[in-house]
Amino acid sequence: MSVCDLAPGYIRAIAPYQPGKPTSELARELGLDEAGIVKLASNENPLGVSPKAARALRALLDGLARYPDGNGFELKQALSRRFGVGLDCIVLGNGSNDVLELAARAFLAPGLSAVYAQHAFAVYPLAVQAIGARGIVVPARDFGHDLAAMAAAVQPDTRIVFIANPNNPTGTFVSGAELEKFIAALPRDVLVVLDEAYTEYLRPDFRYDSISWLGKYPNLVITRTFSKVYGLAGLRVGYALAARDVADLMNRVRQPFNVNSLSLAAAAAALEDEDFVRESYELNCRGMDQIVSGLARLGLGHIPSYGNFVTFAVPGAAGVFQKLLRQGVIVRPIAGYGMPDHLRVSIGLESENARFLEALRQALG
Ligand SMILES: *Cc1c(COP(=O)(O)O)cnc(C)c1O
């Protein structure tokens, strides 16, 4: 018997997360020029890093011999000013992925359960399984969250409900009003982890002020990230906003230096770069229109998306994915999300979107 056989069964049962294929890997595999590859697989910001963040990063290189500020004081101050929440209501993470895991680690254990939707973000089942807690998967409605069914699925042993709004990979959205009604009706001893990774991409008429709910619902945790509209996916930094005692428990289970110095400084600078955020938002609106109308011209249906990506149905999705790769275009297969007949494409620059649509036309040939 090996030591691995003795690892808990719930660990051995975890299906590893499948990331988008890196451009360097595709270049290696197919002998392509990496510079010519278009990666639209991981919902990254096609504009790159905010100039303000880049400046902050360059200024920091000489200080890297020192440990980071384990409390992330400056970034927390910037977040506190922006959102009007106390410093002690903020939890910083190595990506919001880390923060999602902190919530699971602080509030779940074997014998407890968490509720999330079919086709919801893959990190929820991963975080729950790693604890040995039970995941309760609620069937989706029109690919999105069925909030009534999720409320009904909550058990006496349920401690967390995960909701991504908008959701990845489906791009679906529930309104602020529906969401607040759901949270208000939930028992206060069940945490709602509201994952708003794409909230900055919402068009103005869909925006809602979840942060104002924190005062009313002590069981609400809002998570956000610098990986998407702020353009810092490679640095890994995200945060949670929650009631003080909830944030305190989450902070106790994090690594003392879970966010590195570069990430802290770049995130604080990116938060202030409102021009970059606006530019990224506007580029995404135009790119979404470009891709959605291009898909329609190819006769392909899509799921209306509120994020910086769109999921479309295509016959022989796995084969189409491969044909796109051979043309140097990386999108995301989502069979692992129970959607083997769909592919997800991130919104890129206008030229990248055009490359994708042309490659797709050829692949469908
Ligand atoms: C991209 C994404 C995140 C952010 O992940 P990071 O760890 O912050 O890079 C979180 N939730 C959802 C639903 C996402 O799609």
Quick structural overview:
With 365 residues, this protein is an alpha/beta fold. 39% of the residues lie in helices and 15% in strands.
Describe this structure in words.
This protein has two domains: 7-48 and 275-363, Aspartate Aminotransferase, domain 1 (Alpha-Beta Complex), CATH 3.90.1150; 52-272, Type I PLP-dependent aspartate aminotransferase-like (Major domain) (Aspartate Aminotransferase, domain 2), CATH 3.40.640. It is built from 13 helices and 13 strands. The protein has helices spanning 9-12, 23-30, 51-60, 73-83, 96-107, 123-131, 147-153, 176-185, 244-252, 261-272, 274-297, 317-326, 350-364; strands at residues 38-39, 90-93, 113-117, 134-138, 158-164, 191-195, 220-225, 238-242, 302-303, 309-313, 329-330, 332-333, 342-346. It has a seven-stranded mixed sheet, sandwiched between helices. The longest helix has 24 residues, at 274-297. The N and C termini lie far apart (52 Å). It binds pyridoxal-5'-phosphate (PLP). Pyridoxal-5'-phosphate (PLP) is lined by residues 43, 95-97, 121, 164, 168, 195, 197, 225, 227-228, 233, 238.
